[in-house]
Amino acid sequence: MNLPTEEARGLARALTELLDASRQAVTAAGSPLIARIAEHVGCPLDEIPTVAEHLPSWDHANLQRGVDAYLARHSPDAAWFGIAGSRHFTSVVDMLAMADTSGQYRLGAVDYTTVATGPSSAAEAVQLGLVCTLGPDGTPVVLAIQGADEDRGEDRCHLQVLAADRSTAAAVREEILALTREHDVFRGQVLAFGTSEHRGNRLLTFLPRPELRTDQVVLADGVLSSIERHVVRSVEQTVALREHGQHLKRGLLLYGPPGTGKTHTVRYLLSRLPSCTVFLLSGVAMIRWLRATAALARRLEPSVVVVEDVDLIAHDRSMTMSGNPALFELLDEMDGIGSEADVTFVLTTNRVDTMEEALAQRPGRVDLAVEIPKPDAACRERLLRLYAGPALRLADASPLVEATDGVTASFVKEWVRRAVLSAVEGRTALDEQALRSALDELLSQQQALTRSMLGGR
Ligand SMILES: Nc1ncnc2c1ncn2[C@@H]1O[C@H](COP(=O)(O)OP(=O)(O)O)[C@@H](O)[C@H]1O
Ligand SMILES: [Mg+2]
Q1: Co-location of 217 and 357 in the same domain
Q2: 241 in the same domain as 164
Q3: pTM
């Protein structure tokens, strides 16, 4: 600006006076926001102690449920209110302190957000809001909820408790946290960790639980039932084991070539454990979620932690936070989960050889290792009939079964899919001929692919 110095000073002075006057006006009239809180609690804002709890952002739905249950118990008619002008991420306590001295933060509407509560359900949660309620001892208390602020890289949600007496505030916090655990939305769900597009914040997402019948999993006789017996345990067995001081945790390793049904078997197990909480981890990135997963698995027991393709981390020689290679960290975490916790680890791998050394050095983590091999002739026929369904016109399957020696289960599935497709397109029957030509086509394509990968023509 190009104003004469004297004029500039005058303007600055006038502005300062104006600001002071407006501040005084706010304080004199009293900020309705502050008044509401101070009147309820019964002492001036700057004398009210606050007790806070900071939770991971994924716990927002649980925090809301805990607070809702608390309010239902102590002040069912309580109404939420908000803070107008809360544009930037500032803690509620700081905003209230500023509301007292400036007109910036005023009494306003509650800010709501949506949080997932299941694979296809969501609920409203308070993103920023306050509510007047009572402590367990009947004295006045104000609660505030503040959700995570993704855009500012803040990935925790917050509970603030304001009460004239700090011990009341602490008691309220404890009761809300207990209710939060009691109403946990994650209990009995299938969950996967991920990273949001925004600033890499941690996310916990719900997945639908797979539904598979026994006849949809084709393994050699007795294999599936022995796996199932190991993992699916009755409540009575759990009680008996605990009474006899036995540890509950189990470790299952499924190994075998790709496409033989390791993931398929895991999905079947999950369908047989409808009330277990499940955590799905895979890839090298899983190490990042290991600690959080172990803590959640304990909190939400009985639970199953699935670590798919664990050989990927076996190759990873880089050190983790605890200074261990990733695979050792996983095995240590499996052990550290505590003997009392009802947590089962299910690991899958295509390359069990890369893990042998680690498993030998950390014994006891895996108490059942089951090979899922390529299907034998009997299994190939079952797979063929399973995937072809009732449209299949085939009296004797043995020529085709013989011709497919050495293929994987997923190969059989793809082969049948192609045969069905060409039968539908050509309006022909799904018979030996249709299956034979689809097989020849698939095998020759596979050979061409192998040749080109090997650098041939
Ligand atoms: N043993 C099996 N029985 C029935 N279907 C299977 C079997 N193995 C694989 N499949 C089919 O092939 C698909 C891929 O198999 P998958 O379980 O992912 O193999 P893996 O995890 O061993 O690499 C499965 O989704 C399923 O449709
Ligand atoms: Mg798999």
Answers
A1: yes
A2: no
A3: 0.86
Half-sphere exposure in the Cβ direction for 276 (13 Å, CA): 26
- Identify whether residues 367 and 383 lie together within a single domain: no
Residue 14 domain flag: no
Residue among 216, 219, 262, 264 to mutate when testing ligand 1 (max atoms within 8 A of CB)? 264
- Return the closest-CA partner of residue 308 out of 272, 267, 342: 267
258 CA → ligand 2 middle, Å:
7
Whether residues 224 and 302 fall in one domain = yes
Q: Determine the distance separating the centroid of ligand 2 and the alpha carbon of 230, expressed in angstroms.
A: 20
| Residue 261, ligand 1, Cβ within 6 A | yes
Residue 157 bridge partners (DSSP): 55
Residue nearest to atom 17 of ligand 1 (CA): 261
Cα(127) to centroid(ligand 2), Å: 39
DSSP 3-state helix, strand, coil percentages of the chain (rounded to 5)?
45, 20, 30
CATH code for position 285: 3.40.50.300
194 domain residue, yes or no: no
Taking a 5 Å cut-off on Cβ, the residues next to ion ligand 2 are 262-263
**Residue 159, strand partner residues:** 53, 145
- Whether residue 80 sits in one domain with residue 126: yes
CA dihedral 161, 166, 167, 173 (to 10 degrees): 20
Report how far residue 156's alpha carbon sits from residue 57's, in angstroms, rounded to the nearest whole number. Answer: 4
Mean pLDDT per 10-residue segment, the chain (457 residues): 67 68 50 92 92 94 98 97 81 84 85 94 96 97 92 85 96 98 97 70 86 97 93 82 83 95 97 94 80 92 93 72 76 82 92 85 88 97 97 94 96 96 93 95 86 66
Answer yes or no: are the C-beta atoms of 146 and 130 closer than 8 Å: no
Pocket flag, ligand 1, residue 194 (CB < 6 Å): no
Single-letter amino acid code for the residue at 197? E
User: Which residue do the tokens 């005023």 mark?
Assistant: 106
Q: Are residues 282 and 210 in the same domain?
A: yes
Q: Which ligand is nearest to the CA of 409?
A: 1
Report which ligand 1 atom has the smallest distance to the Cα of 266: 17
Residues 313, 219, 297, 117: is their CA dihedral positive or negative?
A: positive
CA triple 205-208-209, angle to 5 deg: 120
Give the largest CA-CA distance in the chain. Answer: 106
Same domain, 240 and 258: yes
Separation CA 43–CA 49 (nearest Å): 10
* Structural domain for 394, as ranges: 377-453
**Domain boundary at 182, 213, 241, which?**
182
**What pLDDT is attached to residue 151?**
72
Asked if residue 25 belongs to a domain, the reply is: no
Does 282 sit in the ligand 1 pocket, CB within 6 Å? Answer: no
d(CA 111, CA 119): 24
